[in-house]
Each structure stands twice: as C-alpha cells, then as structure tokens.
Amino acid sequence: MSRRKGNRRITVASPSVAVWIAGALQGLFRRGLVVFKALAAIAVLAGAAWAGEQAVRHVVASPRFAVREVRVSATTHVGEDDVLALAAVAPGDRLLSIDTDAVAARVASHPWVAAARVRRELPSVLAIDITERSAAAVAVLGALYLIDESGHPFKRATLDEADGLVSLTGVSRQQYAAFRDASAAAYREALAILDEYRSPDSSAKVRPPLSEIHIDPHYGFSLVLYDGGAEIRLGRGDYTDKLERLDRIFAGLPGFGARGLASLQVVHLDGPNRDRVPIRLATGIR
Fold first, then answer.
1. What is the pTM of this model?
2. Does residue 123 have a cis peptide bond before it, meaning omega lies within 30 degrees of 0?
3. Taking CA atoms, which of 5, 152, 221, 222 is between 20 and 30 Å from 80?
4. Which contacts (CB < 8 Å, 24+ apart) does range 280-286 have?
5. 35-53 tens-digit pLDDT
6. Does one domain contain both 268 and 153?
7. Number of domains in the chain
C-alpha cells in the first residue's frame, strides 16, 4: 500500500508598505542627524578659526605692539646707522609681523658682520645682536683684503683698517679665484705660524714684529721683519723648532735691537742641517 505524503505549505510574510516607508524615513533621519552634527561641528570650528584669526589680527595691529625702539648691540666696526639701514625696520612697524630671520639675513650681509641674531622684546622693542668678524691679517690680492681667522678674505681693506696688520703675499688674485680652498688653507697655515711667532715660550724674549709672511707653493713660508726687512725662510713644517733656532740667532746679534736686526738680510731655516744655519748679512755690516 502506498502512503500519500501530506502537502507542505510555506507562508511568506510581507511587511506592509507603511512599515517599510517608516523604516526608510527613520534611516534617513539618522543619517541626516549625523550629517547635521558634522556640519554643525565644522561650522563651530570655522567660526572659532575666524574668531581666532580676527583676534590675532587685532593683537598684531594693536598700537601696543608697534615698534618703538630698534636696539643694536655694541659694535666696533659696524656703525649703528648701517645696521638700521640694513634692518629696514622703522618705528611704528608691527613688531609681531616682522620676519626676524629676514632682518638677520639683511644685517649679516654687511662684510664686518659674522652673525646676526634678531629677537622681539615685547611689547615694543626689536633687539639686534651682532657678532663682528676679526681681521687677522691682510692679503695682497691685487688690492688689500682683510682676512679672518678661517683664512677667507671678507672685505677690501682701507689703509686705516690695514694699519698694524701683517701682510700675506705670494698668492695672486687669479690663483685665489681658481683655488679658493687651497688658498684659504695656505692663509690658515700662515696665520698659525704668525700666532706661534707672537707667542714664544717664557725662555725667549719678545720676538721683533713682522711686516709680511710670504707664501711660496714650492718653498713654503718666509717671514719678513718689520725693522730692517730681513727675510726668515722657514720652508714647511717643524715651525716650533725653527723659531727656537731663530731665537738663538736673535740672541747672538749685537745689541738685539734695530742695529742688530739691520745686520740681517736672509736667514735660512729651511735647510736639512739643524746644526748649521746659513745667514746672509746686509752689505756693509761688520
């Protein structure tokens, strides 16, 4: 006997149109609320930014923060009027809107200025602190140029500025233009020799002043005495030992004064023999 299977009924419940619309509207409302909150936050931030910008403009433009004084640190070679002209800041300018880096760069363009620092002193002072260069010698490069401790020419020298400084010779203008780094290194070595010459140990007398240090790329360095013009040929290297031998030569000169120095013409300290130093005396000296 066969058994008849019972019929299975599947019921699908379909929501009403009204419920579907209500759900859709509720979703739209939630999304609209999120968008509204985001727009409101953006509006608040924009308003705060605008209010802050207006407040900053008000403070910057306030007469309380107008420049009443430009204060320049004490200088030896740079005139205050020159600094003020380069700074290009006038009383009444807005202190808070001044670009201090730009002012410092303009002031540092002066040849005597090694570095410039510009700062605000609220409410109304702009302070300019200057570090000046120091002239260590004068380089003869067609004209006279002041040389700093790093061996770089930084300014064409006037006669007053060159007065009392040792001249560095032997490097032509063309050589310096073609070999700046090598020329600066030669100048630095010459300045190191000059410093050692001027600072003998306690057992030596004060050495006579120099007028010139000559630089020769092949033979080295020569010193020229201010009194009498004698040439002291050092060559290269062992400068401490050579200057000590020079001290013994000076000590053996009659009187170790102008008369004694006048007897010298050339002293050779550039040879290999440490025990014998060839000396050329001036003509007519006995």
1. 0.72
2. yes
3. 152
4. 282/228, 282/230
5. 556 666 666 666 655 555 5
6. yes
7. 3
